[in-house]
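Researcher: Quick test of sequence recovery. Tokens follow.
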């Protein structure tokens, strides 16, 4: 498996010369996966190695960041733009000063900027999935909220100076309006509440991911640094809102079997949001 086109290549591992300190488990997992990808070997094995390195971010943040970039490339190839963006955001958060990571993120971000958001990028069950056993009035509110979700999901924040501020305001306003629509659904309780709280979590989660991107190159370096810190702070705040919504989805009673799919999705998304929030601190 070759690296994705246009991505900056990551530097290969050091040779086994005497005096070179052996890499830790995170670095070893990364380099093993990297070599597996380069020689066109087992794609599943390479992915597993990158995932293993990313899971050991506490041990080696740079190796984990590089693994996140490689995984983002794999997700780009398979058309999962949302997951690729999240991985790039995590890579930037883990190793903001690593030039190799920065170059690879910039190259892959450029490709993703030209990739339209699709409904398949929405977390959890597909938009429009009906809620079993809820009254017709709640079902109608749910359908309206799902349509708003798709519209919000397709809004893009473009990292160009002329559109940056307006794009962020538009995306944030659309997110909050859609959250309000889902809160009406959640008031019905039961499976409607679980599903609506999950969707609320995804809205804040995805907004946070979109806020972590490379800023326009024409910005003054000092201004860019201040803005990057502000955006990262905003992203962490949105991730906290996402985690809270995912937790509410998991805690709804009674535990109807019809809500299990939404609860499982909330558990997985909550883990991802916590990981990204922790890397961004």
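Model:
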């Amino acid at each position: 498996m070759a690296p994705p086109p246009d991505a900056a290549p990551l530097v290969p591992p050091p040779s086994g010369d005497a005096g070179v300190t052996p890499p830790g488990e995170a670095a070893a997992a990364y380099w093993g996966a990297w070599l597996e990808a380069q020689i066109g070997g087992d794609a599943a094995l390479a992915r597993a190695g990158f995932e293993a390195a990313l899971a050991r971010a506490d041990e080696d943040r740079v190796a984990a960041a590089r693994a996140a970039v490689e995984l983002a490339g794999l997700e780009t190839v398979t058309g999962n733009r949302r997951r690729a963006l999240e991985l790039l955001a995590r890579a930037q958060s883990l190793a903001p000063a690593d030039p190799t990571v920065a170059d690879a993120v910039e190259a892959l971000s450029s490709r993703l900027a030209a990739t339209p958001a699709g409904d398949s990028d929405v977390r959890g069950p597909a938009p429009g999935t009906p809620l079993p056993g809820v009254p017709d009035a709640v079902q109608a509110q749910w359908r309206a909220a799902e349509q708003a979700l798709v519209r919000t999901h397709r809004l893009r924040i473009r990292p160009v100076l002329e559109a940056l501020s307006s794009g962020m305001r538009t995306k944030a306003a659309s997110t909050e309006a859609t959250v309000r629509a889902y809160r009406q659904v959640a008031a019905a309780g039961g499976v409607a509440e679980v599903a609506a709280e999950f969707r609320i979590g995804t809205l804040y989660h995805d907004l946070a991911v979109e806020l972590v991107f490379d800023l326009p190159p024409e910005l003054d370096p000092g201004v860019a640094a201040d803005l990057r810190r502000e955006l990262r702070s905003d992203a962490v705040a949105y991730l906290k809102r996402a985690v809270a919504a995912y937790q509410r989805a998991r805690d709804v009673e009674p535990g109807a079997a019809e809500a299990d799919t939404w609860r499982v999705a909330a558990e997985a998304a909550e883990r991802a949001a916590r990981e990204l929030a922790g890397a961004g601190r």
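The first helix runs from residue 25 to 38.
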